[in-house]
Amino acid sequence: MTRIVILSGAGLSAESGLGTFRDVDGLWTRYDLNDVATPGGFARNPALVHDFYNARRANMRAARHNMAHSALARLSRAPGVTLVTQNIDDLLERAGARDVVHMHGRLDRALCAACGARWDAPEAMVPGAPCPECADPVTRPDVVWFGEMPYHMDRIEDALARCDLFASIGTSGTVYPAAGFVELARMAGAHTVELNLEASGGAFDEVREGPATALVPAWVDEVLG
C-alpha cells in the first residue's frame, strides 16, 4: 500500500471564488491581518473580527466545490491517504472527501476561548455570545490565528514520517510549520510533488504548474492508475 500525504492550500479553492492572501482586490486586502487574524486583534475588537469571519463564512457558503476538490475527494477514499488542508472552508467535505485534517480549523465551527468547547457556528457570530458549555462570553471562530499552534500536528507529522508520496497543492509553502512538510517527507524517503499555479521554489522532486482544476484531476488519475 502506498502511503500518501496531501497538503492543500488556498489555491485549491481559488477557482471556487474564495480568495487567497495575495489577491489584489480580495477580502483580505481590506483588513490589517493584525486586527482580524491574531488573538490580540480579537481581544482589542471582537466585533471587527466577527464581522470579518462572518463575511468569509457567507462567501464560503455561497461557493461551490470545483473539480480539484472532487478529485481529492475521490483519492481520499483510497487506503493509506492522509488529506491535510490549510483551508478553513468546507469545500473538500462538500465534494465528498473523507477524514479531512483541518490544520487551521474550520469557518463553520465555533470555539470557546475559556473552556475549549467546540460546536457548529451560526451563520453570524457576535461578541459576547455565551458558550453553550460554560456560558463564558468569549466565543470565537474555531480557526488558527497567526501566533497560534496549528491543529493535529502530531497526526500530520506521524503521517509524513511514514509516507511514500507527498503532494503540495495550491500553497505557497512559505509559512511554517507547513513549509517544512516537504523536508519531513523527503527525510522519510518519499517522492515529493508540487501542483501549483506557479512553482514555490521548494525542494520538490517534481513540479507541475497550472490551475488546480486542470492539474489535480489528472494527477489523481495517475496516482489511482
From TrEMBL:
Keywords: Acyltransferase, Cytoplasm, Metal-binding, NAD, Transferase, Zinc. It catalyses: N(6)-succinyl-L-lysyl-[protein] + NAD(+) + H2O = 2''-O-succinyl-ADP-D-ribose + nicotinamide + L-lysyl-[protein]; N(6)-acetyl-L-lysyl-[protein] + NAD(+) + H2O = 2''-O-acetyl-ADP-D-ribose + nicotinamide + L-lysyl-[protein]. Substrate binds at residues 53, 56. It is found in: Cytoplasm. The active site is at residue 104. InterPro entries: DHS-like_NAD/FAD-binding_dom, NAD-dep_sirtuin_deacylases, Sirtuin, Sirtuin_cat_small_dom_sf, Sirtuin_class_III, Ssirtuin_cat_dom. NAD-dependent lysine deacetylase and desuccinylase that specifically removes acetyl and succinyl groups on target proteins. Modulates the activities of several proteins which are inactive in their acylated form. Belongs to the sirtuin family. Class III subfamily. This is NAD-dependent protein deacylase. It comes from Jannaschia ovalis.
